[in-house]
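Suppose a colleague, Dr. K., hands you the sequence of a protein chain of 458 amino acids and asks what its three-dimensional shape might be. Before reaching for any lab equipment, you can write down a predicted structure in token form. Begin with the sequence itself:
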Amino acid sequence: MDASTPGDGTALTAALGAFVSALALESVPPEVQAIAKTGFTDCFGVMVAGARDPVVALIDRELSGAGGTELASLVPSGARRGTADAALVNGIAAHVLDYDDVTLDGHPSAVLVPAILAQAEASGANGAEMLAAYVAGYEVWVELLIREPVPLYQKGWHPTAVRGTVAAAAACARLRHLDGAATATALAVAASMASGVVANFGTLTKSFQVGRAAQSGVLAARLAAAGLTAAPDALEHRSGLLMALSPGTPDLGRPFDPAARPWHLARQGLNVKRYPVCYGAHRAIDAAIDLAQRHDLRPGDIDRIDVAIGAMQMLMMRNDRPQTGFEAKFSLPFAMAAAIVARNVGLAQLTDAFVQVPQVQALFPRVAATTTTEQMQASAFSPSETVAIRTLRGDVFTSDPVVHARGSHERPLSREELWVKFSDCLGEGVPRGSAERAFERLQTLERLNDAGTLLQLQ
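The predicted structure, expressed as tokens, is then:
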């Protein structure tokens, strides 16, 4: 990897600052750029869909405004806000449906894309610079993750909200063309802004935490550019971010050598969601839909649905008897019920009306979970999941173990499948021709002259 002089693990903040500052898109392999463009495309579509949720208007009304010298646009309305406020509102829209991509124990694009869109528009950055900023933010995120031996969830931290804040600061510092020292300062400032707790999962505050991470990244880079000082070792100090967050003992001495390390974006990639619910349920949904289709199972046939799933996933899915579309996003019983009743878990099923359908509600008490504490390497998820459905006639149909969900890095969506999700997210309010042009711009982001072009949806 082309980058600055390698730093050792005891100088992580400075080494990451130098790496981000020196990163040029020309040094990023095409396959890495392709994954970043998928993240941009998917997240942009999800932002448009999420912008219709009432909480987005609520936060915009109460917390943002049109003041400030740097302005950016809300997606998809084009309304002008301060850059940090635009990142906040767009970040909430990106995550409120729980339809955004997931990896790294979190949701990288929902933080990075809103922050990059806002800063790029204000800075006049082109698409190539935006892609480089995304890669920089993603790589910084992973460098924090790999030093932590215990999932942050176990201590109650929301990884997207805490690591995402630092990653967004890296991306915005790259767009501001800050030098290595100033970029390191932006990361250190972001370390004091990183926060978010798992206890707020299942509420609107979860998406607010993600929006705040994007907003904080914009602010951290702005403040560093303006001369705010911060500790040069705020990440790796024994009283710094890594140690403060950790449920265990983070590896503070792990070396950071850009020339020797792999591209994390190529190795770990992105998991694009097929379903707008907590990702912890996706493998089970795949299994349940396959069983329902293969054996032509109907709601009235079902006696019991048994799901073998990870304990950490069940910690996130805390709603056993949801009554609203929002509650259903964090409910394994709903995921299984929708898979049987609709043979899909899509935007059309995440409505209060569908959740309250008697056939759906009747299946909730018939869903049972058996959990395991065994986890994949570098993941809070169990190694695989299985679903077993017992019918009232006594038949038992059991899925094969599902290791990777459809849309995952290991089982990626085709361009056509990505387009289907994108166009569904944009909805009937955006003409098909405009949606196709937006999709093409995002898929060829490196050719884009300026970020503002992405807002032309009519």
